[in-house]
Amino acid sequence: MNGPKFNPDNKPGYTYELLADHFTKLIESGEWAPNSRLPGERALAEEYGVALGTVRKATDILRDRGLVVTLKSKGTFVTRAR
């Protein structure tokens, strides 16, 4: 991934909220394009060095923001940039 670097140590806040903000930037920048499938939660957890639950909470925030939709047995997809 070549987008903005994720560094939770440079800001106060919960890691899952910071990760959700980071993912939002990837969507808004077009790196994660509309209708594209997000990498799997386990892959994201490994890539970012966080727990699986942290990625799941971040994804929940993206869903609440209307940026992604999750389809059972299919994955999570970008809906649009806000």
CATH architectural group? Orthogonal Bundle
Tally of discrete structural domains: 1
Sheet with most strands: strand arrangement:
1-2
The count of helical stretches stands at: 3
The main β sheet shows up as: 2 strands, antiparallel
- According to CATH, the homologous superfamily is Winged helix-like DNA-binding domain superfamily/Winged helix DNA-binding domain
Pfam families: GntR
GO molecular function, one term: DNA-binding transcription factor activity
Protein name: Regulatory GntR family protein
Domain HTH gntR-type: 13-81
Question: What would you say this structure looks like, in words?
Answer:
By secondary structure, the chain is mainly alpha-helical. It has one domain (14-78): Orthogonal Bundle (Arc Repressor Mutant, subunit A), CATH 1.10.10.10. Helices cover 44% and strands 10% of the residues. It has three helices and two strands. Strands 1-2 form a two-stranded antiparallel sheet. The longest helix is centred in the N-terminal third of the chain and has 15 residues, at 15-29. It is globular, with a radius of gyration of 12 Å. One of its GO terms (biological process) is negative regulation of DNA-templated transcription. It holds the Pfam family GntR. Keywords: DNA-binding, Transcription, Transcription regulation.
